[in-house]
Amino acid sequence: MNSLLRLVNRIWGSSIGKKWIVAITGALLVFFLLAHMAGNLLIFQSSEAINEYAYFLHHMLHGWGIWISRIGLLTMFVLHIAATISLTLHNRQARGQQYAYETTVQASKSSRIMIWSGLTVIAFVFFHIFHFTVRLDPELAGMKEVVDGKERHDVHRMVITGFQKPAVVVFYLIGVTLLCSHLSHGIASIFQTIGIRSKGTRDPFKALGWAISIALWIGFLAVPLTSIFGIIETDEQGSAKSAALIEPVADESSI
Ligand code: HEM
Description:
Blueprint: H1 2-13, H2 15-40, H3 47-59, H4 64-96, H5 102-133, H6 138-141, E1 144-147, E2 150-153, H7 155-162, H8 166-193, H9 202-228, H10 235-254
Helix pairs in contact: 1-2, 2-4, 2-8, 2-9, 5-8, 8-9
The chain binds protoporphyrin IX containing FE.
């Protein structure tokens, strides 16, 4: 126990240790985002696919699975932010004692952008959790269905209805864009921190960071944008439309 505490102290006590914490937690959060985006895209398959997937997430390991994932995710998030803040404060102190080289100014510019985009992502995540997980809006919270005798949340209807408000979609647009801008810089930095980015691999890793960020940007924004523009609809909207299409034909034949 003592040696474990000493190890934690040694990692947290050095800049390199904290950079590794930022890199590893950042990489795990990127894996979460890729998995979350892939899950969200089930909305384009069918309401059954996404609702069953959400039901599975909430019931895996007898309901413990989601709480284990939540605790893991929260730990990654808090460590990522705490280590970043600590590194920034340390760099600021160190810079006060050094000459202001051009490179230092450059580095501080990009890290300042990282801090602002990071702070917006935190605000976005809070809003998003209250929107779709806590479901503060009683209309969204009440969207449930009963299938084969089991009650499950109608995530398909909740998400599409939740994205009918332009202000909400604009907020998601800003949040996801800043998240992806944060990642376009952050993913390449992971490879630098863990020491596998050299002069020769610098550009490929940079391109990989951009490719993942663009894929996440398109994948995440596809849902709010197709919802608000009526490209995907709740099952009820769909049946209301087909009923409206059938009616004029019935009218003509009755003349
Ligand atoms: C823009 C498209 C997105 C959609 C449609 C979406 C959809 C959802 C839904 C439906 C849930 C609730 C799942 C459930 O309880 O059944 C959820 C939870 C969550 N989402 Fe998203 N999400 C999106 C983007 C994001 C982004 C960009 C992030 C991270 C920056 C994120 C992070 C989370 C987190 C942390 C949870 C809470 C998981 C939990 O504890 O239950 N989501 N999302």
